[in-house]
Amino acid sequence: MARTSWIYPTDGSPPYEKGTYHASLPSGVMVMPDLPDFVSSVDGKLYSGRAGLREHNLRNNVVCNADLKGLPVLTASSDQRTPEQRREYAQNRKQVIIDQVNRHWR
């Protein structure tokens, strides 16, 4: 038979088995303040609040660093391509950018 341990709180609350205590969630409304205004380092415009941050991210096709939390870190050694494959990829990427710019200015 397994042994159990009990904890007897000093505040008068009932005893509980060790390892089973769950703190009660706060009851009531929790308010989270809005984000402060910020000037974008991408386009230099002033944005305010969470709605402004969402608009900024959509308009400039960027994401917040906090949204990248948990993703694997990409290091230079994680790229398994040969130097020739990297050069070819870079050349193809340059061509795609050139094509997009030319298409935009027609």
Describe this protein's structure.
This protein has 106 residues and is mainly alpha-helical. The longest helix has 22 residues. The mean pLDDT is 85. The strands form 2 sheets. A two-stranded antiparallel sheet has the order 1-2. Strands 3-4 form a two-stranded antiparallel ribbon. The chain contains 2 helices and 4 strands.
Strand content: 5-15%
Radius of gyration: 27 Å
What oligomeric state do the depicted chains represent?
single chain
- Give me the strand/helix succession: EEEEHH
Q: What share of residues is helical? A: 25-40%
Secondary structure tally, helices: 2
Features of this protein?
single chain, 106 residues, mainly alpha, two-stranded antiparallel ribbon
In brief, what are we looking at here?
With 106 residues, the chain is mainly alpha-helical.
Q: Helix and strand layout, with pairings?
A:
Layout: E1 6-7, E2 16-17, E3 38-39, E4 46-47, H1 49-60, H2 83-104
